[in-house]
Structures are given as structure tokens and as C-alpha cells.
């Protein structure tokens, strides 16, 4: 009983810390219409500004997360929280054009690389095996809580504060995240693991099941972060084209859409437990593909139809999230999980970089001031999840009847 209470407290501590660390996550997506106007950005440049965050993540995560196989992941997390605080404060103080904005937002992506997956590794290192799958589901679902709260507080405060002050608030929250982990999570024992990092990478790259999860996560993040990067801008454009109470506060809709990730992600992991991980993923990914197309070609509908459809689509984009991550962890030996997570994160968040940029390019090609451009943008999201489904289907991960518990 004591161990169960300790596990719950540990999961809660990491989830709360993750929520604080995510406070600045939606700053650029939420402020993209404003920054695009102030800095005279094209849609492609706006896509780069939204996507550079994930490029920073991709460049740092292979080294940072594989490092957690050799040192306590808690130490990496603490350094990442400090870096996130520095990046947000730097954006607030020095970003005044596209180039400086790209530099500081890229650094913020490095901060996420040092907190998100290292936080998961620090959590699972401290949980008993029986609690790891559901602990992973709650932790990954909290990503949606943090992102949703980020959209929410930015929407509410941006009418009261200038945008640099919003970045300063996010910097304070990132510092609080590090302080919470420092105080609530005890340091782990020194690691003395057999083998070398090179041998870990060689074994991971030869494992077809792990590569399948990585490909699925690439497609998932392409769709998810492309959607989140442009959702506020899309709703702002709809409101400017045809004012309506449903789109009067686009940040609130974006927050709700992001909050839906939490029950959807947890439900997705439970569905994978019940029906089998492979069968679940091969069912929900096509569903998300169809909904992306439906949203894209429903732009001419009234907002009373479009907004609920957007929310349903937002939930569908997260039905595969925890199932993918928990599957990777359960299929990887404990001594190689850091390296596996490094590969998984770097490939997956490469999709997070491509998604916003591809959406922006589609807008510039087909016109950001008309529905055709936005329809093309949503088609790029459908292409992303289609790639993820193809990766899962072609490589294969588990027998269809297997259930990981």
C-alpha cells in the first residue's frame, strides 16, 4: 500500500512539474497572428517560427535522452528547466524580428528536449514495472494539460499584458518546474550499466518494432503539432472573415482542443490494453486521417458545425499518443530505454517541425486569405498521420492478438 501511495505521489509530482514547464508552449502559436503582423511574416516564415521549436528539440534530444542511460535523468531535467527559463526570458528581452525570434524559440525547443522525455525516463526509473505503463499514459497525457493551460492563460492575459511580459511569466513557470523536481524527487543511485552507448544505438536501430513506433510517432507529431501551430491563426482568420461568437476567443477553443488530449490519450492507452496495441493503432490513425480531410473540406460550414468538428478532430489526434509511447517503453529493455527514447523523440519531433512548416507552405501556395489555402493546410496534416499509419502497418510491431499490460 505504501509503495502504491509513493508511486501516485511520484506521478503527480512529475505531472505537475511538466505542467509548469509547458506554460510557454503555446506562446508562439497563440501570438502568431500578432507576431506575423508586427514582423511582416509570410505564412512560410510563420511556419518556420512555429516549427523551429521542434527543430531545437530534434537536435538536442538524441544526446540528452541517451545520456539518461548513464546518469540520473533528474539531473538532465533540472538543467532543461533552467534552459527553458533562460530561453523564454531571452525571447521576452531580445526578440524583435524573425531571426532573433527563431534563435530564442529554437533554444526553448532545446529546453523541452531536456525536460519532456528525460522527465518520463526519471519517472519510469523510479516506478515499479507494474505501474510503468499507466504512469507513462498519465505523464504523456499531461503534455496536453500543460499545452491546454498554456493556450488558456495566454488567451486571458494577452489583452492585459504586452507579449514580452507573457514570455516572462512563462520563464518564471519553467523555473518553478525545476524547483519542484529538485524538492519533490530524490536523486537516483549512481548508474553502472553494462555495454556502451554505441552498442545501445546499434541494437536499437536493428529492432524493427522500435523503428515502427518511431515512424508512427513521426506521423503523429506531424499532424498534432501542425494542427496546434495553426489552430489559433485559422480561427482568427475565420473570425476576421465572418465574425461569430464561436470564434471570438480562438485561444479558448485551442485550449479546449488541447485539453481533450488528456482523456483521449489515456483512453487510447486503455484501448491498446484491451484490443491489442497494433490493432488499436491501425484503427485510430485512419480515423484521424479522415477527420483531418473532413475538417479541411468543411471550411465553408458555419462555425456551429466547424468548431465541434475541430474539437472531435483534436481528440482523435491523441488516441494514438500514449499507446505509442507506452508501447515503446514496454518493448525496450530498461538499460536501453534512454537510447530508445532518444531515437523515438528525435524522429517523432522531426515530424513536429515538418508539420507547421508544411502547413505554412500550403497556405502560401494556395492563399492564406481564402479557404483553399486552409483546406490545403489540413490536407498536409492528413498526409502526416497517413505516413504514421504506413510505418506501423509496413514494419509491424506486435502480433494483433498481443496485449501489453
TrEMBL record:
Keyword Acetylation: no
Domain of life the protein comes from: Bacteria
Principal place of residence: membrane
A Gene Ontology molecular function term of the record: transmembrane transporter activity
Keywords linked to the UniProt accession: Cell membrane, Membrane, Transmembrane, Transmembrane helix
Protein topology in the membrane: Multi-pass membrane protein
Transmembrane segments: 47-65, 77-98, 104-124, 136-154, 166-189, 210-233, 245-268, 280-299, 305-329, 341-366, 372-392
Residue ranges constituting the Major facilitator superfamily (MFS) profile domain according to the UniProt record: 10-405
CC annotations in GO: plasma membrane
Gene3D superfamilies on file: MFS general substrate transporter like domains
Subcellular location: Cell membrane
Cleavable signal peptide: none
Name the UniProt record assigns to this protein: MFS transporter
Organism: Candidatus Accumulibacter affinis
Organism placement in taxonomy: Bacteria, Pseudomonadati, Pseudomonadota, Betaproteobacteria, Candidatus Accumulibacter
